[in-house]
Structure formats: structure tokens, C-alpha cells
Amino acid sequence: MSWKEQVECVVKERCEIGEGPVWEEKEGTLLFVDISGQKIHRWNPATNQKETVATEKFVGCAVPRRSGGYVIGEGRSFGALDWESKSISTIAVIDQDKPNNRFNDGKVDPAGRLFAGTMAIEERPTVLELKQGSLFSLNKDHIVVKHFNQVDISNGLDWSLDHKTFYYIDSLTYTVEAFNYDINTGSISNRRMVYKMDEGEGIPDGMCIDADGRLWVACYSGGRVIQIDPQTGVRLQTVKLPVDKTTSCCFGGRDYSDLYVTSACKGMDEADMAKQPQAGCVFRVRVCQWRLLGGGRGGPSYAVNFRK
Q1: Is 288 contained in some domain?
Q2: Is 104 annotated as a binding residue?
Q3: How far apart are the C-alpha atoms of 302 and 304, rounded to whole Å?
Q4: What is the UniProt remark on how the cofactor binds and its stoichiometry (predicted)?
Q5: Is 244 marked as a binding-site residue?
């Protein structure tokens, strides 16, 4: 059984920069954003229907809130989105001394805090002013914590199954890093590298963790998602996709046995698009069918734990 046989293009409308997929278990929908297209999408695989909310600025992430609605990272603001009214209200503004910054990837920790990082707005894909970003968290009381700065492109993040380790990617370091994590306080410490990208693998972008504690990393300009063991630093599997600019991934579907992968087409010319007509689409990898080959399955994502 080959990987190629298990990859299906499921959302065929292109995103400029598709990112941040989140599976919403109750609704059975996939939430994801188009960063520079300034849109938040919600796609239902059962009906193949997609709903969209437009944003005024670049939108780096959108995550569910336990009490309903969503929390988003838009421009340099954390915001609350009411999907029905399509209204967005500001919760907090960050990087106020850096007007050229924007939010990028974000994810909710097991306690309900939203972690999200920033970066400078790109001149063109991966070309930007370096060391302008930071990693932040938004807590239940709406207090924003800055964990560190000097980030190039804040990207993939997730937590170990025992909640004691936080995994993080600053893309242009070409590494996946780990920190000790205190779930009670949300503090991180003891930064270290767990994986260094091999030549030809691309740039590490978004990532997720499976039920076996392995990380799945989307490789921008690499046309693949790799599965790595963060305990040994070994790449276990490589899933090739028909597009180069793979951006992020999450598990979803029945039993969380499908891997959804977002992609981008921004910066591609007509010749590039002719070679990769599905660039910017969303793909589904049927993980359950290659479980015995080393595939994984995931688990539910977390929701932000505050009301307003």
C-alpha cells in the first residue's frame, strides 16, 4: 500500500495560505484559515459544504471556545468571533511597538489557554524581517503572557500526551523544539531541540501529535508531512503530497483516523500552478488504512476556556 493511494483533495477551493486546521468533534467540521486571503473557513465533510467568515486583517489562527464561538489571532489582536453574526470583538492587542507584525499559528493547551506566536509580515513567502516575532499565551482572565521573543516565523505547536512537554517550531531554525511544561501555570522552561530537518525535507511549519505521542510536521516547500518520534529524534514516516507548500495538519474524522493537511499557493506563478493545480487546497490522508505501516491516529483538540 502506497501513501499516494491514501491522499485525497477534499476542499478544492484554493487558499492563498491555508493554515491552522482544527477538527470540531461536536459539529463534525474542519475549521481552518486562509491567512493572507483573510478568511476563516468551516467545512463539513458529510455534506461537502463550506461556510466562510471574512476578517479585516491577516488571520493566523482560529480555535473553538468552550462556551461557543471562536477565539482568533487577527493582525496583532486576539479577538472573539461570533460565527452567526460574523462579528469580531477585540480581546487584547500585542506587539504594539511592531505595527508590521501579525499573528501566525496558534493552538489551545489542555487547560484551555491559547498559545499563538507572531512574525513580521512577509515581503514574499519566507522573506521577511527576522527576529521580530514572539510567543504569547492568552489566559482565562484575558491576561496575555509573552514567553519569549527573537522569533523569525512562529509556527507549529502542541503538547505531549502527559501535558509535561510543549513542542514548538520557529520555522527558519529548521528544527522542532521542546520545553518542559507546567500545566498549572502555563510556564515553559528547559528549551531543547528534538529534531533537525534533513536536507530536502523543506521548512517545518504546522504540526500535530498523535495518540502514540509522535509528531506530524507539515514541511513547507517540501511537499510532505513527516512523522517523527520526539523522544529519539528519528523520522518514522513520510507522507508525500501533490503540492509543495504544505502548511499544517491535524487529525479528525471518525475515530480521529484521518489526517487533514492544509496548503498554500501564494507566490506561485501560472507555470507553477499548471504543475500543481491543487496548491492551496486541503487534503485528507486516510491514516486508518495504513495503521499497520506505522501510521497514527489523533485525539480531540482543546477549546479555549473562557466565556467572553
Answers
A1: yes
A2: yes
A3: 7
A4: Binds 1 divalent metal cation per subunit.
A5: no
**Does the residue 161 lie in any domain?**
yes
Domain that holds residue 39: 4-293
Cα distances from 198 to residues 132, 201, 247, in angstroms, run 26, 6, 17
Number of domain units in the chain: 1
| Within a domain: 306 | no
Q: What is the 3-state secondary structure (H, E, C) of 220-256?
A: ECCCEEEEEECCCCEEEEEEECCCCEEEEEEEECHHH
Catalogue the active-site residues. 205
Is the pLDDT confidence value at 246 over 60? yes
The pLDDT tens digits of the residues spanning 110-128 come to: 999 999 999 999 999 989 9
Cα dihedral sign, 290-195-72-36? negative
List the CATH number of the domain containing 214. Answer: 2.120.10.30
The reply, when asked if residue 155 is annotated as ligand binding, is yes
**How distant is the alpha carbon of residue 224 from its chain centre?**
15
Cα-flanking dihedrals φ and ψ of residue 128, to 5°?
Answer: -165, 165
